[in-house]
């Protein structure tokens, strides 16, 4: 099982059990389904996007951003690797009377496909894609599925000097990788100072994120911390 699967499966099962609506609800934050963390950023960039364009959201979770765009006339495909998340997303879309094509898919392992999109959206997924090969796979999937001059709209958690990594967590400032201690060797585990760790998050500084996107063949149009608009050059 890949390092990013178990945590997310556990979280979405808890959301379902407790009747919650989205990831942040698990951390004592008071969000409604329609008031999701990157809504203000999405609203601020809507005028850059083609009306009724084709959108792919990966790591969609329970689907608030996908439903938001579908309600505004976009044709939305939305994927997540956790079946429980997709089941919840479909239910929330039905409740709101919006049409979203939800599916179970890992963006790090997407098969070759011919469909291209005007917009690809990431609503705080990329920080959980930690290793260099996985991030390269995800960003290649983004680049290859964007139409020429299409927009990649990214919101991701970033390095914060005030964030504390303690207990079972360890931060590598060189790579931006946060590791979580594990009790035994496992898929994707690394050994640091005779202790096994799994990749947990990637918290980059703004300039490192920008460089990573440009290496992937994307052109950064605007960036405010982890809120980024990039395009695939035509």
From TrEMBL:
Family matches, as Gene3D superfamilies: Vaccinia Virus protein VP39
Keywords (A to Z) from UniProt: Methyltransferase, S-adenosyl-L-methionine, Transferase
Domain Methyltransferase: start-end pairs: 55-150
Pfam families: Methyltransf_25
SUPFAM superfamilies: S-adenosyl-L-methionine-dependent methyltransferases
InterPro entries: Methyltransf_25, SAM-dependent_MTases_sf
MF-aspect GO terms: methyltransferase activity
Annotated GO biological process: methylation
PANTHER family recorded: METHYLTRANSFERASE, UBIQUINONE BIOSYNTHESIS O-METHYLTRANSFERASE, MITOCHONDRIAL
Protein name stated in the entry: Class I SAM-dependent methyltransferase
The species this protein was found in: Kribbella speibonae
